Amino acid sequence: MLFGISWNLDGGNWLFAWSILPILLRGLLVTVQAAALGFVVAAILGLLLAALKGAQSRWVSWPAKALSEFIRDTPLLVQLFFLYYVLPDYGIVLPAFLTGALALGIQYSAYTSEVYRAGLESVLKGQAEAARALDLTPLRIFAVIVLPQAIPRIIPALGNYLVSIMKDVPVLSVVSVLEMLNVAKIIGDRSFNYLIPLSMVGALYLVLTLASSAGVRYLDNRLPKQGLPLR
Amino acid sequence: MNEPIIKLEKVVKRFGDTTVLNELDFEVQPGEKVTIIGPSGSGKSTVLRILMTLEGIDSGMIYVAGQPLWHEYKNDALVPAGEAHLRNMRKHMGMVFQQFNLFPHMTVRRNITEAPVHVLGLSKHEARQRAEEYLELVGLADQADKFPRQLSGGQQQRVAIARALAMRPRIMLFDEPTSALDPELVGEVLSVIQRLSQEHDLTMLLVTHEMQFAQQISDRVCFFDKGVIVEQGTPETLFANPVEPRTREFLKGVTLEATVEQDA
Amino acid sequence: MNEPIIKLEKVVKRFGDTTVLNELDFEVQPGEKVTIIGPSGSGKSTVLRILMTLEGIDSGMIYVAGQPLWHEYKNDALVPAGEAHLRNMRKHMGMVFQQFNLFPHMTVRRNITEAPVHVLGLSKHEARQRAEEYLELVGLADQADKFPRQLSGGQQQRVAIARALAMRPRIMLFDEPTSALDPELVGEVLSVIQRLSQEHDLTMLLVTHEMQFAQQISDRVCFFDKGVIVEQGTPETLFANPVEPRTREFLKGVTLEATVEQDA
Amino acid sequence: MEWLDYLPPLMKGAWVTVQLAVYSTVLGGIFSFAFGMGKLASNRALRAFSIAVIEFFRGTSLLVQLFWLYFALPLLGQSLGVDLRLPPVLAGVLALSLNIGAYGAEVVRGALQAVPREQTEAAQALDFTPRQILWRIRLPQAVPEMMPSFGNLAVQNLKDTALVSLVGLSDLAFRAEQIRNITQDNTTIYTLLLLMYFGMALVLTLCMKLLERSVGRWRSGGT
Amino acid sequence: ATLQQIKDKGVVRIAIANEIPYGYSGLDGKAKGIGPDVAQQVMKQLGVKKIEWSTTGFSSLIPGLKAHRFDMVAAEMAILPQRCQQVLFSDPNSSYGEGLLVAKGNPDKLHSFEQFSQGQAKVAIMAGADQLEMLQALGVPQSNILTIASNADAISTVSTGRASAYAATSLTVSQLAGKSPRVEAASDFSDPVVHGQPVRSWGAFAFAKDSQELRDAFNAELAKFKSTPAWRKIMAQYGFSDADMKASFDKKESQLCAQ
Ligand SMILES: Nc1ncnc2c1ncn2[C@@H]1O[C@H](COP(=O)(O)OP(=O)(O)OP(=O)(O)O)[C@@H](O)[C@H]1O
Ligand SMILES: Nc1ncnc2c1ncn2[C@@H]1O[C@H](COP(=O)(O)OP(=O)(O)OP(=O)(O)O)[C@@H](O)[C@H]1O
Ligand SMILES: [Mg+2]
Ligand SMILES: [Mg+2]
Description:
The complex is a heteropentamer, with 1 copy of chain A, 2 copies of chain B, 1 copy of chain D and 1 copy of chain E.
Chain A: H1 13-53, H2 58-73, H3 76-86, H4 96-122, H5 125-133, H6 138-168, H7 180-191, H8 195-222
Chain D: H1 3-39, H2 44-59, H3 62-80, H4 88-114, H5 117-125, H6 130-160, H7 172-183, H8 186-215, H9 217-220
Helix pairs in contact in D: 1-2, 1-4, 1-6, 1-7, 1-8, 2-4, 3-4, 4-6, 5-6, 6-8, 7-8
Chain E: H1 3-9, E1 11-16, E2 24-25, E3 31-32, H2 34-46, E4 50-55, H3 61-66, E5 72-78, H4 81-84, E6 88-89, E7 94-96, E8 98-103, E9 123-126, H5 131-137, E10 145-148, H6 154-159, E11 165-169, H7 170-179, E12 183-185, E13 193-194, E14 197-198, E15 201-207, H8 212-226, H9 229-237, H10 242-247, H11 253-258
Parallel strand pairs in E: 1-4, 1-5, 9-10, 9-11
Antiparallel strand pairs in E: 2-3, 5-15, 6-15, 7-15, 8-11, 8-12, 13-14
Helix pairs in contact in E: 2-8
C-alpha cells in the first residue's frame, strides 16, 4: 500500500510493474509540477539577474555577476540543503515542495540570465546602430527592434532549460518531496524490488524528456528566425 | 566659400592603445559630394561612425550645420553632449551601412516608415506616402510588402538608402555601400547613388573601393591613411597626378587594372 | 592537336531540381591555359569542383589524362569509381580556392609539407626542401614559420598556391583566386599566377572576374552561362568581338568600367 | 563546536570529491570523443549506437541513473546470474562520466561539424584520406572550439559529484551530512560547503582556461 | 560470506545508518554507537582485526546486504518477520521502545502514535524504518506521514513545523532532544499498542541470507560478550537503561522472526 494504492508483488514482474504504474504516475505529476514552478521562478529571477548584470553601474553589475557565478558553480543539492535547513534558522520556513522549486529556480536563474543576455546580444550590433542612425529612442529600439528579434531565440533556449530542470527534480527527493524517483525508492524500500520501479522511472523520464525536447524543437521551428514579423 | 556643413578640428579617436584618428582636420561644404578612399584600417569607417554619433571622440571638436556635435552649450559653457542634443544633431544625417542593416522582422514599407512615424511624428498615412515616394526613387515601388530576406542584396541596399532618405537628412553617409554585394548587383546600387549625387542640396560623404565610381560622382576625393588625410583634391587631379608617395602606392594596385585595360 | 588532358562529354550535374551543367562538352589540351568567365551561378565553380572530385556528376563522362575520372574499369566493365581510383586521379590535379582554405592550425611550412609527407610519402626533410622551393617561387621564403592568420590575404593565397604546387600536379585549378582579396592585395597573387602561366608543362584552368588578367594570361577564354559554354575563343577575339548576344550582354558591364577609366 | 573543527573531515571529503571529479571528467572526455565521433561515423550501426547512448543519458535524470546503477543493476545481474554489483565509486564515476560523455559528445560533434567544409575540401584536393582528414585537419581545429563547452561541463560534473553522497560515497557533501548529524549546526556547515564547492569550481575553471589557451595557441597567432 | 573467507581477507565490511546512538560516524570518521562498539568486540573475539565501515541511508541497509555490498549491518535494526525474509538476523543485542520528538513545549500535546490517525497533524518517520508499519497498523493515513531521509533531518523537520512530531525509538528521540533546545521528547509517552500488545523492538545485527555460518559464529560470541560487564558499560554509555538491557535477553531471533 502506498498513497492508498496497493500493488501486486506476487503476480510476477509484469503485474507488479502494472500495479505500481499509477503510483509512479502520481510521482510524475509532482515532478512536472515542481519543474514547472521551478521554471517560472528561473525565468523571472533570470530576467532580474540579467538586468542587474547588464546594469550601467559597476556597483550593481559586479555583485550580480559574482552572485550568478556563485550560483552556477555550486551544486543544486547543497543549495537545496541550504535553503531547507538554514533558512528556518532565520525564521523562513517553506514547505519542502516550495523550497525545492525555489532551489531549482535559483540554480537555473544563473543559466536563464545568460539566455536573455545572449538572446539580446545576438540581435546584431548593427541592428541597434541602424536604429540609432534613424534616431529612434532607446526604448523604442528595445521594444520594436531588439525584442521582436530576440524573443524567437530566447524562447527555445529557455525551453531547453525546462527540460534540464525536469531532470534535476529527483534531487528534491532528499528533502522528502514525493517526486517520481522518491516514490520509486520508497516502493523499492518496501518491496525490496528496486529493479522494476527504478527502470520504470528511467523509461518514464525518457518519454518525458524526449517528448518535451521534441516540443521545444517544434516551437523553435515554428518561431520566425528573423524575428516576430512587423508589418 | 560657404560655412562648412561638417567641420572636424583636431579630432582624436583611440581604441585602447591604437590611435585611429590622429588630430584629424576635415571640412565638407553644403551640397558637396566627398569620397573617402584609403587602405583597410585607416579610419574611414570611424569618421562616418563618429559623425553618426555611433562612436564618441577622445578630443577635438566637430561641428555639424554650425553646431558642435559632441558638445553642447550649457550656461554658456561647452560640455559633453547629452542624449537629447545628440538626437537633435542626428536628424541632420542619414547613414547607409555596408551590411545594409535592414530590420529583418519588418516589411520593406515598415522599415521605411518606422522612423518617420515615431521620430518625426508623421501620421501613418503621410509616412506611407513618403515611403512610396522613395521606393519609387530607388526603383522598388512594387516590393513594399516583402521582407528583407526576400530581396537580393542590391535591392536590400536600395531599401536601406530609401530608409535613410525618408528622414530627409541634409547629409548622407555611405560606408562602402556596395562592398557586401555580388559583383553583378553593384551596378544597381551605384546608379541609385549616382542619381542622388545629382541633387545639389544633399551633402554626401562616401567611403568606397570603387575608384571609377568615385571619380564619376565626387567633387572631391580624400585619401586617408593612418587616421589623417594624406592628400585630397578633385578626382581628376588626385587619380591622375597623386603627389604623395603613399597615395601613389595605394593607387598603383588600382590603376594596374586600368593599364591592362588600355593594353587591350 | 594532342590528346586532351581534360575531356568532358555531355556532363550533366543537378542540384535537386536545378540543372547546373547541361550536357557540357569541354576539352583542355596539355599545357593549355584556359579561363572560364560567366555570370554568377552559371556553373563555373561546379566544373572545377567536379574535376577535383569534390562533387559527383549525374551523367556523362569525364576523362583526365586519358583515364575516366568518375568511372573505372572493373572486369572490363565501366563502373562508378571507388575511393581508391578517385584518390589516384586526384593526384593529377591541384586546386586553389577563393577563400584560400589554408589549415589555420598549421604553420605555413607545415601547410605545405603535410600532404607531401603523408600522401606522397616524402621524408620530412625532402618535404621541407620542396616547401622552401615553392615558397621561394611565390615570394614568401621568409614566412615559413608563421601561422596563416598572421599573413595578409594575398600572402595566404600565395601560400595556398605553393601548397597545391608542392604536390606537383599536372593540372592546376583556380577558382576566383583573387575575389576574396582587398583590391590592394590582388596584384601580388595575379603576378604569381602569371609567372606560373609561363610554365608550359602546367595545364591551368582558371575561373576569374578579372577580365584584363584573363586576357593577359589565357590561351583560350570560355564564356559559361546556364551550364553550357556559350562562346569561346582566344581572348583577343572573344573580348573584342563577342558573337553571341549573351556574351555581349555580360561583357558590357565589364567594359563599362573600362570606359569610365578612359574618361579620366 | 568551532567551524575550524569541521575542516579536517570536510577536507577529507573534498579530496574524495576532487578524485571523483577528475576520474569522471577524464573518462567523460573519452566518452565524449567516442560517442561524438561515433555519431558522425559512416558506419550505420556505430552511429545508431552512439545516438542511442547519447539520447539515453541526456534524456534521463543523473540521479535516476545513479540510483539505477547502484540499486537496480545488481538485482538485474542477480536475475541474469551475473555479478553486476558495482562498488559505489565505480557506479558514481560511471554515471557521472556517461552523463557528461553524452553532453560532451554533442560538443564534439558540433565542433567537428563547425570546422568549415572548405577545410575538408582543401584536404581532399591534397589527396588526404578521410581518416587523415579527420585526425590531421578536422580534430585539431575542432578541439579549441570545444574547450569552453568542456570547461562548463567539467564544472557541471564537479557539482554533480555531490549526488554520489546519496549512494554512500564519503565525498564532501556526505561528510557535511555526517557532521550535521552530530552537531546540527546547519548554517555553518552549509555555508562552508557552498564556499568549498565554489572554490573548487574556480580552481577548475582556471585549469580549463589554461588548457584552453594551450590547445588554441595557433588561434591567437602565437607560435 | 563465510567467516573463513573474511578471515582470509582479514577485513570485514560493516554498514551503519548514521543513527545516534545505534550506529553513526563521529567527526573523525570513526564508527560509534552500540552496534559498532559491540560488533568491534565480537569481531575481535572471532579473530577478525580489521573493519571497513560504510555509512549509508537506513533504507539502503537491506538492499546493500542483499547485493553483498557489505558483510554485516550494525545498525540495531529491529527484527521483523518481513525483514527476516530478506536477511538473517543475529540474536537481539538491544531492546527499545518508541518515542516522539516534538517541538519545545509540545504545543500540539502529542503523547502517542495513535493521535495521528485523526486530524491534520503530521508525523515524520525515517525512510525504511519500521515505524511506518506501526503507524499503518494504527490506521494513520498516508497523508499524515512525512518520510525524511535520515535522523539528522528530524530536528529541523520538527522545529520548523514541517511535521508536528518525529516518530522513532525512545533512545533516538532522547538523543535528538539533547541536541537542540528547540525540541524535546514528548513526556508521558504511551507505547503504541498493535494487535493488543505494546510495541517493543529488539535490535540486532543483520547478515546476508547466505551467511548462515557467519551469523551462527557471531551469535555464539555475542552471547558470550553480552554476559560481560564490558557489554553493560557500552550500553549504559549510550543511554540504555537497566530495564532495556534486561529486556534484550527476553526474546530470541527465531521467536521474533516467527511472529
Ligand atoms: N570597436 C572597435 N574596437 C577596437 N578597435 C576598433 C573598433 N572599431 C575599429 N577599430 C580599429 O580602428 C581602426 C580603424 O577602423 P575603421 O573601421 O575605421 O577602418 P576602415 O578604414 O573603415 O577600414 P576598412 O576598409 O577595413 O573598413 C582599425 O585598426 C580597427 O581595427
Ligand atoms: N551544394 C550545392 N547545393 C545546391 N545547389 C548548389 C550547390 N552548389 C552550387 N549550387 C548551385 O549551382 C549553381 C551553380 O553554382 P556554381 O558555384 O558553379 O556557380 P558559379 O558560376 O561558380 O557562380 P559564382 O560566380 O557565384 O561563384 C548555382 O545556382 C548554385 O546555387
Ligand atoms: Mg570600414
Ligand atoms: Mg563560383
